[in-house]
Amino acid sequence: MPRYVAFLRGVSPMNAKMPELKRAFEAAGFTNVKTVLSSGNVVFDARNTSEAALERKAEAAMQQALGRSFYTLVRPVSALEQLLQTDPYAAAALPPQAKRVVSFLREAPQAVFRLPVVLEDAQIVSALGREVFSAYVPGDTGPVFMRLIEKTFGSNITTRTWESVKKCAAA
Fold first, then answer.
1. What is the pTM for the complete model shown?
2. InterPro entries from the xrefs (predicted)?
3. Are 28 and 55 in the same domain?
4. Phi/psi at 136 (nearest 5 deg)?
């Protein structure tokens, strides 16, 4: 049975308890469910079906079990493993202290844009299908990279650090 990761937008320990989130996914019929970190990453097994169908099923299950839903983006673990092997940051001249982040979209971007897209200490270094790869240098101005990503792609996305994606793929 294929393994998937659901990346949920806007989850934190303050608005969703991981054991409850796990139970919601199990109630939906997903198996071998694990939450990874406390930021809305749920890894699970499911019959081979479309990502869109899994997203709808997960959102409905959260609404039923938690009384609310979180915007959900699903990727097969196999696709994440391939993504991690590509190292989309290799060609970018990033400072050593730069943090790497991946934004997940439901649809490939329709807009044509020239890379890199830069805003202050953040830049979008590449895009591949429904994933956007950015980097930023942490600073006093807050999450500049999120403003850049949302300005470019809208708010129906969710973003994880490169390290978090590695942990989810390995779970």
1. 0.91
2. DUF1697
3. yes
4. -150, 155
